[in-house]
Amino acid sequence: MDNCNKTLLIILTLLITFQRATCTQETCREGRRNDERYLLYDVNPGEGFNLRRDVYIRVANLIRKLNDVDNWVLVLPPWGNLYHWQNVRPGLYVPWKNFFDVESLNKWIPVTEFNDYLKTEGATVGSTYVLQNYAEGWGGKWEEKYDKRPCIERHNFEQRDDGSWSGQMWATKVKTDNFTCLSIQGQAATLLPLIQRDLTSRSVFIGRAETILHDEYGGKWYWAARRSMRFARHLREEATRFRRDYLGSDDKQDKTEVKDDWRDTKPKRGAAVGGPYIAVHLRRKDFVRARGDEVPSLKKAAQQIKKLLQNENLTSVFIATDAPVMELQELESLLPGYKVVHYKPSTDFLHKWGDGGVAIVDQIICTHARLFTGSYESTFSFRIQEEREILGFEERRTFNRLCGKKSNCDQPAKWRIIY
Ligand code: GFB
């Protein structure tokens, strides 16, 4: 290569690097590269919001690994029709930007909303793999593997006359050239060879993605993806207003200020103080039936809350709960002399952001409390614990849960943040 060509090559490389470093989410997507490939995924319809957030981390880290050699974009599965959401019109799906700061997600891996994918790629996906376990079970010997197998469960894809398939993805009928049910035993990275070898497909859909495990639950990559999942600004602002107006809490005084970019936010453990209240996540409804021994009666819950308030020398308790109003009123009557605070959204807020938005505001308020206690094995509580790890609270103020029948019950495992 002569000197002139060398100089041209250097200028070109610099230009590409500059464009990648400066583009925003929108302009990056506009300036898409031809070699971009898309990974779509979905989760079992029965799973709740907070397990879905966990599945995102598994798939996000799969994209990270795929992008060592290729150029994959993760398509964010729209939210809707969740079992626990009572105020959502059936058939209505909302984008991730309603709940999350999509620019923050993009700082970890390239992501795009499903609607934007439809605009550029159309209602079509190259290959579809619906994950399932092995019909015969795992046979006592753990090995990572996957195999094409007959479908075990009903799915919503059907073959067309031309040999291709069509299926419902959220509210859209999508055509897919190849359809396979895939029995799998393993983690996200187990899928790497399958996806890398599928060279004919520009896009791949993975159904029932919760079937794959984390590559390294609780490790450095887990936490990086987790930290990128910042909530949308409008939800953070609603929680900030509520904390200020009803709980005398603000970030400066509580020492919970964060940097604009999650990558620059690494507080020292114990730096966060939290607002002058304790927060309780009291999971009721299906948990009362399904986890009877581990869910306290309201009387027992009130006794534990009183004790925590006395230990912390505080008088305000914030209750996040899915309990019916009657139960909440009963709990309040069992805590005379204390300030019991509960977040009730305006009609406008509920209309705009739905049950998902309300639940996130509840989670943010719990995250900022001086001390938090949650419910046994609730992913809703787990996600709050993680947010508190990100803010830098002392462990003893975070990893707590209410006891059911047995007082002195085992407390939650401490999944500490790793950078
Ligand atoms: O998020 P999630 O999977 O947590 O499901 P679990 C619970 C849903 O109930 C939340 C609502 O996404 C909310 O919509 N919810 C629960 C709450 N607690 C609160 C709260 O304090 N405030 C508000 N606003 N909403 C899983 C279920 O629940 O437990 C699975 O999703 C299954 O279907 C499993 O039942 C056993 O992990 O608590």
Using brief descriptors, characterize the structure shown.
14 helices, 419 residues, globular, alpha/beta, Rossmann fold
Walk me through this protein's architecture.
The chain is of the alpha/beta class. It has two domains: 25-221, Rossmann fold (3-Layer(aba) Sandwich), CATH 3.40.50; 231-397, Rossmann fold. It contains 14 helices and 13 strands. The chain has helices at 3-22, 25-30, 49-66, 102-106, 114-121, 192-197, 220-227, 233-247, 251-254, 286-290, 298-312, 325-333, 347-367, 379-391, and strands spanning 37-41, 72-76, 111-113, 124-132, 145-148, 157-159, 165-169, 172-185, 203-207, 275-282, 316-321, 339-341, 369-373. α3 (49-66) links the parallel β1 and β2. It is globular, with a radius of gyration of 24 Å. The two termini are 43 Å apart. The structure holds guanosine-5'-diphosphate-beta-L-fucopyranose. Residues 46, 48-51, 83-85, 281, 283, 286, 290, 320-322, 355, 358-359, 362, 378-380 line the site of guanosine-5'-diphosphate-beta-L-fucopyranose.
